[in-house]
Design goal:
Layout (H helix, E strand, L loop, with lengths): L1 H14 L3 H18 L1 H13 L5 H17 L9 H7 E4 L1 H10 L4 E4 L5 H12 L3 E5 L5 H11 L4 E5 L3 H10 L3 E5 L9 E6 L2 E6 L1 H9 L3 E9 L2 E10 L7 H22 L14 E2 L5 E2 L2 H4 L2
Parallel strand pairs: 1-9, 2-5, 2-8, 3-4, 3-5
Antiparallel strand pairs: 6-7, 8-9, 10-11
Pfam families: Lip_A_acyltrans
Subcellular location: Cell inner membrane
Keywords: Acyltransferase, Cell inner membrane, Cell membrane, Membrane, Transferase
Length: 299
């Protein structure tokens, strides 16, 4: 844990750094990666093309900025308070949340690595007056995991990692917390199902669709759009599990519904999606076989 005590002073400094300075650091890092990493640049441009961006190169370049801004905004997230919500946050689709809340049952928040994703865990609970249990991925480094846990845990927010998360969810749900997760399209084969997305069948981590299918939990989607220094929270849904389907079919249908909403939002604002990641590195072809060549073929 020596690394923790080495990094902690830097974290404290960044936690008190003005947001404009943080964004300046983020844009410098984005500039460096764009010019240094030909591979990441190619991946982002390919993803932008798949999303149908009018200018894939410009979109990919903008995505680098937004990606690093989201990374570094984690050091600002704990400063989000009532005044910030009042002056810097707007909500599109609040009636969706009110509808699902009035139904009285449990539901799940699902978002994506898009726009201000690193701040949504603090914005949404305060803006909607609720409590959220967020699910993240372990770095497999105890020091980094401890720092991330500190950065992601707030008064209204609990944080758990993917491995073993389902075992912890039930107790938090019973305490009134709403599960919130960003579903990735790069899940390992044993953890995923394949579902249509932007013309391809891509892996979707199966845990949350399976939970929703088993417990009959509806889904409310939440995304945070950068609007300068402000955030526009976009709510979509709700999506309900189809109880007329068999369990496996129900899970696949939920995954398909999730991807439809993702596609709607990401194609509208492609520059704010996390394009530097290989989202389509493993896709299912029409004959059921898997292809690993999307990024190689586009070179």
């Amino acid at each position: 844990m020596i690394l923790y005590y080495i990094l902690k002073p830097l974290v404290i400094i960044l936690n008190h750094t003005p947001r404009k300075v943080l964004h300046g650091i983020a844009k410098f890092m984005a500039f460096c990666l764009w010019h240094i990493s030909k591979d990441r640049r190619h991946v982002a441009i390919t993803n932008a093309k798949i999303l149908g961006a009018k200018d894939p190169v410009k979109t990919a370049r903008q995505s680098f900025n937004y990606t690093f801004m989201a990374y570094i905004d984690i050091f600002y997230a704990h400063r989000v308070n009532e005044d910030y919500i009042k002056n810097h946050v707007t909500i599109e689709g609040r009636e969706i949340y009110e509808k699902i809340k009035n139904e009285g049952g449990q539901f799940v928040f699902i978002g994506g690595h898009f726009g201000t994703w690193s701040m949504l865990a603090t914005i949404v609970p305060q803006a909607l007056d609720t409590q959220v249990i967020t699910i993240g991925r372990s770095t497999k480094n105890k020091a980094l995991d401890k720092i991330l846990d500190e950065l992601r845990t707030f008064e209204r927010v609990k944080y758990v990692t993917h491995r073993g998360a389902m075992d912890k969810l039930s107790s938090y749900i019973n305490e009134g917390y709403i599960p919130g997760v960003y579903i990735d399209h790069t899940a390992t084969e044993k953890d995923c199902i394949n579902a249509n997305f932007c013309g391809y069948k891509v892996p979707v981590i199966a845990g949350i669709p399976a939970l929703c299918a088993r417990k009959n939990y509806p889904i409310v989607f939440f995304f945070g759009l950068y609007e300068g220094m402000d955030t526009k929270v976009i709510l979509k849904g709700p999506v309900y599990p189809d109880k007329s389907l068999k369990p496996k079919e129900r899970i696949i249908k939920i995954a398909e519904d999730i991807n439809k909403v993702y596609e709607e939002v990401f194609t509208k604002y492609p520059e704010q999606w996390y394009l530097i990641h290989r989202r389509f590195k493993r896709v299912e072809l029409e004959d059921g076989t898997m292809s690993y060549h999307i990024y190689k073929e586009s070179k």
